Amino acid sequence: MGKKLIRSLILAAIIAGAIVLGVGCAVALPTLDPSKLEAPATVTKIYGINENEKPIELSAKQAEPVPYKQIPEYLKQAIIATEDREFYQHSGVNFKSMARALFRDILAGGAVEGGSTITQQLAKNTYLNQDKTIVRKLKEIALAAQIERQYTKDDILEMYLNKVNFHPSAVGVELAAKIYFGKSAKDLNLAEAAFLAGLPQAPSYYYDNLDEALKRRKIVLQNMVDQGYITQQQADDAAKQPVTKDYLKRDPSNFQFPHYVEYVLQEAEQKYQIPREQILRGGLNIYTNLDFNAQRQLEKQFSNPSNFPPNAKDGTQVQSAMVIVDPKTGGIRAMVGGRDTTSFMNFNRAFQMRRQPGSSFKPLVVYGPAVETGRYGPNSVLVDKPGTTFPGNPPYTPRDWDNHKQIPRGDTVTMREAVKWSFNIPAVWLLNEIGIDTGKQMAEKAGIPFDKSDTGLGIALGGLNVGVSPLQMADAYQPFDNGGKRIEAYAIRQIKTSKGDSLAQANPRSVQVMKDSTAATLTSLMQSVVQSGTGSLAQISGRQIAGKTGTTEYSDQIAGSNRDAWFVGYSPELVAAVWMGFDNSNGYYLQDSGSITSSGYPARLFSRVMTDVLKSYPSGSFATAPAEEPPKPDKKEISLTGAWNGKTVMLSWTALQGDIQYYVFRTEGSQQTEGALPIFKGNVTTFVDTDVQPGKTYSYAISAINLKDNKQAGESNALTIKTANDPDKSNDKNGVPPKDTGKPSKQEPGNGKTDPKNGKNSPGGSSSDNNPAGNGTPGTGQTPSVPPGQTNSDPGGNTTGTDNGGNGSILFTPTPSSGGLLPTTPSN
Length: 828
Fold this sequence. Notes:
By secondary structure, the chain is α+β, with helices and mostly antiparallel strands. Among the domains are: 1-29 and 91-151, no CATH class; 164-252, Penicillin binding protein transpeptidase fold, CATH 1.10.3810.10. Helices cover 31% and strands 15% of the residues. It is built from 23 helices and 26 strands. The strands form seven sheets. Strands 18, 21, 22, 24, 25 and 26 form a six-stranded mixed β-sheet that branches. A hairpin with a 4-residue loop joins strand 16 (562-570) and strand 17 (575-581). The protein is elongated and about 105 Å long.
């Protein structure tokens, strides 16, 4: 009895309101303008950040209207049976249907919606916005009543079918028929007519979800059976007729910058409740943060296949997405969500995709929070001991990408070395030290959403259950580039009607995610990544760049195989996030190509895009990081001497006590040896470098490791040797030649076979970054065996800097030279 009473009251209230409205509509409501019912869709203009540039003109595609007599009976019947069963009985408003819909809304606590007749929908789509309010509903009722007084039922149904959205960006049944079925509306059969009749309820949703659209068709067919239009057998037969996604190829949408426009439409709908259909019907002016030049440069680079890893063996294309954000305003400057930059309303990976971020997540959840505590800094010593196991169910034992084989070091590293080389063990150890909740709190303030299952230490390596999008990562990196502040990334600044009335106004909010000193420190750490670490391919001449690489491992049984590859980086002006991978990683993984590994591609694409984009921005500088005293390692000095004898360079150094292994490092030129990979290791104190050429300059240094505790025991002075052009003239001015012991030097290859396996993340995925500069032997997962006197270094020709702010160690910074190959085992 209670429900019946409520229904009666609601019905009475609606009728009473309609009566009152009917008396006063001529004064309170706009008078019906018949010309709008008969006019085609108008243009919506989308302006960029520079409003003097010609705007994007956006409008729904509209074919010639179909006369009532050419509309198939099946389509008319399907629409009436589904949208308005009493269409021919009411006078524009079906109060019983409205009461039922309103009753459902009240019980569900929802907005005022539903129950609209075909006439009301026509009024709403032509004259009103999409607000779900009582005021709008009353206006809709009044206008529907006026339409019914001036037009016949056939006229109303014809206008409706020619104006309603069957498709997200196409108006009218004629164009819908051509898009979905490649034919004119007059030639539609029962199955096709029923399919189209189900789409106006949610054209964008059904466009993207064919299976759901086919379920909707079954409902329409059953409605037609219930209303006596067709038999059950006809409905069953029609429901079996297939619909393929060939309609995607026939889609006529051809907007400029479609991927950015797609995000604008979504933001308008989700943030301001303005449906895309309303925008596409035209008549609006949308002011955005789009940088037309940045978008053009982004699309240009995405059209170049050489910027991406090779396709799979079956031809499946590697996909990618990239987002550029202004950290000072939060404005999204450019966005591409896939390799096909001309597609519209397809899957936009820039904001719709969720993938694990790998080691690009470390600054957000580990190093940023650790520095923020005040207890850690770039020179803090972190545990990097192989086999370190952390409690859990099951226990967690992460591994470094090189398994402590390629880069000689002890059981500890500084934070700067850990970030630069993307070691896993120190990151997990540090998160365990500061606490998982502490790490997550900063990431959440930076805009990262965590799933309730993201509770393990694997999040240190990007092991997230749901994952993140490139937009979320670019957004989250903003605080590093903006004094610790984040302004949530957004596209739309304002939306106005053609008359200048404001429909929406952005009100960006700034959140202090971290202290400005923390942001500056993290920037300094990530500059090391780009200058001389895993992200060296992201360098841009004349620009300060910071950033972090990240990959997620496909299989530890396939060397160098990655599901995802990331680079998130920034200049003082802009932040950008790049992702690459396959949409379906089941059986598909990124592969190396030539001298660059799959993990190097995102960093290189960042450099190529941003090199062109930043030409429009004055060159700035990062804030200076707070000074920090370097650690005082217990290391002894080794005296290194040597000379050119006309054919080889002969080196000799002082010995240390204990079970010592010495590493010889060499770079070509007078640059520092910091970061060069070793060309020799052994327990002797002499070395003859035979791989030298006359007329060159070489720099050498020695590092010693105590094999008992695997810690660095000492390091030498840097020694520069200039080889004479005349090989018969030795240069003994560079140092003292080694003593002739009468015995050949015991020499050992610098690097042998490397175990390609990498430590997996906790449940949720594994994380890995490939070699330091993104270059290496494709697909081998092995370090080439290096004979005595030969180098093993980066052939990429990248100009890398030194580790500014480091502790002077010669062990940890790769410095490219002219020959050899870098190893390709995965790293984080």
